[in-house]
Each structure stands twice: as structure tokens, then as C-alpha cells.
Amino acid sequence: EDLTGKDEIGGAELDCSVLYRQRIGEEREVVLGITDEKGAPVVGKDKGMSEVKLRVRLESRVLGLAAAQDAQEAWVPNEKRRIVATLVRASHLPKKDMMGKVDPLVVFEQQGREFKSSVRKSTYDPEWEGGERIELDWVESEGAAEAVGTIGVRVMDWEALGKNELVGSTGVDGELVHMRKVGEESEVTLELADGDGKAVVGEDGLGAEVVFRVCVERSFGAALDCLDEEEEWSEREQRRVVVTVVSASHLPQKDLMGSCDPYTTVAISGVEAKTRVIKRTYDPVWKEALAMRWCGECPEGAMRVTLFDEDLTGKD
């Protein structure tokens, strides 16, 4: 170090044609000899040859959403689908606040409707630990899915007083997302642009970006059609339905002093099974399998699914 400026000791080079042809994700150790500006080896005070030791790893990513490898799953009667984005992180954001860094949140937009994430305070590299689930609107036909258009993605700087300020925006093709295999998650990395279409450069000098995962979910609404011809019951055969209660979303507040303590019951012909109670949440996740009673013929009526709020002082 030279207190009046900088004093170069020497340098070394590693050929990019070699560096970028390594096995992706594999870290390798490299020792390089240091040379001066004339190409002569630099000799240390101890008479040894100066060298630098590095570990290098080649990483890979795909910007945007790659085309689906498999054909789109055919739609069936009464089906509807939606895109679910799981927000992971944003990186290399620019400074927006006079007295601090940036308080980012992410807004997804589908056909004019906005879906906002939670805010992360005072950070250029926000992370949504475990991923924050953002559910977009259902579409009820293949034609409606094709008409979704671009899913807008905006990173905003939250303001306690006044309007949130745009950090940068991008988007992903909604029709392309809907063409993917139902239930299969894909990670998407998108670079941010400002209002004039120019790349947003972060406080660290690198390009700003946002990372999230997308998948398509399906629902059959109130009716589940028979996808195949009914298999005939054989003599002495019994059948039962196994229902996996996965989750519920957007539940109302039921407790005066809290949120909601939900559980779910499933009943067929008066025989009921229920999940465990999950405390204090509007968006419970159970992933709990309930096996219904064996029966020798198809029961009459319908299977009923009911959600309750547990109340220890009275009736649920």
C-alpha cells in the first residue's frame, strides 16, 4: 500500500478460453506466478517467486424463463389454473433514500391486478427467507391463459409517507408460464430496467436483478370430473378415498384477541376425519393425509370439506 496512491506489485492472467470451459459448479484451486509490467517474474524479499493462489468456480444461470421441454398438459372440463410466484431475493439494488439504503418490496401485476410482497427494510440485497408465495388470479380456460400477456414485476422502494418509488421493473411471459407442466417449479432471474428502459445499476456497481420461482397450479372448482371410464367394482372389493389436505389461504380473522386457529374436516356419509390445528395463521399449511372409511359400494351424496377455527372457550 502506498499512502500517496497505489503501487502495483505485479499481476497474473488466466486465459478466459480455459476459464469458461470448466465444469459448471466445480471449484478448482489455481496457483499463478506473479510477473511485473515487463513480464519478468517478481521475486519476494525471501528470494522466493511471488505467486497468488485462487479458487475459481464457473456458475451458470438462465435469464428469463426457458421454453418448456414437455408439451402443455391438456385442459379438462371445470378446470382452472393460476400462476404462483415464490419470491426469493433481489440483488444489487441502488440507493433510493437520502438517509438510508432502500426498503424494497416486489409487486407482480397480471392484467391490471397487483399482488404485493412484504417489505424488507434498509437493504440492497433483500431476501425473502424460505420464499414468499404470491398467488396470481385463476384463469378458467386455455384461451384465457393464452391471453394473460406479460406478468409485470416491479421492485419498489417502500415509503412510510407518500408514494412508493420505482427501483426497477421487468416481466415474464404469462402464456409461456402457463405452458409449463402443472406443479413443476422453475427459477427465474430477471434484470431490472428503469422507466426509460435502461439497466438499473446497484450501489455496488452491478446490475440489479430479481429472482423468483414460478409454477402453475390447477383446481377443478366445485366438481371433479371422471378423467377415465369408471372401473367396475369386483366381488368383495372395497374402496376408500384418501384426501391430502394441503393448505388454505386468505382466511378471515375469527378471534378477537388473535388471528385464526384453523383445522379442516372431511366427511363422507357422516363419517368424519380431521386435520391437526395450526395456531395463529390465515394461511395454514397441513400437507396431511386423511384416509376415509372403506366401503363396498359408492356412497351416496357428496364429500364435504369444512374449515373451522378452534375455540377453546366455546363452539368452533
Provide structural commentary.
It is a single chain. The protein is mostly beta strands and about 325 residues long. Helices cover about 5% and strands about 35% of the residues. The chain contains three helices and 15 strands. The protein has helices at about 15-20, 140-145, 175-180, and strands at about 25-35, 50-55, 80-90, 105-110, 115, 125-135, 150-155, 165-175, 185-190, 210-220, 240-245, 260-270, 270-275, 285-290, 305-310. A four-stranded antiparallel beta sheet has the order 6-3-10-9. It has a four-stranded antiparallel beta sheet with strand order 5-4-7-8. Strands 13-12-15 form a three-stranded antiparallel beta sheet, with no helix packed on it. The radius of gyration is 28 Å and the shape is elongated.
Brief account:
The protein has helices spanning 16-19, 142-146, 174-178; strands spanning 27-33, 51-57, 80-91, 104-110, 113-116, 127-135, 150-157, 165-173, 186-191, 209-219, 242-247, 262-268, 271-274, 285-291, 304-309. The protein is mainly β and 316 residues long. The strands form 5 sheets. It has a 4-stranded antiparallel β-sheet with strand order 6-3-10-9. A 4-stranded antiparallel β-sheet has the order 5-4-7-8.
- Helix percent reads under 10%
Could you tell me the radius of gyration in angstroms?
28 Å
| Major beta sheet summary | 4 strands, antiparallel
**Element order, helices and strands?**
HEEEEEEHEEHEEEEEEE
Tally of DSSP helical segments: 3
Mean pLDDT: 86
What form results from the Cα inertia axes? elongated
Structural class, by secondary structure, is: mainly beta
Beta fraction: 25-35%
Q: What is the rounded distance between the termini?
A: 72 Å
> Spans with pLDDT under 50 lasting ≥5 residues?
none
Based on DSSP secondary structure assignment, what is the total number of beta strands? 15
Arrangement of strands in the largest sheet: 6-3-10-9
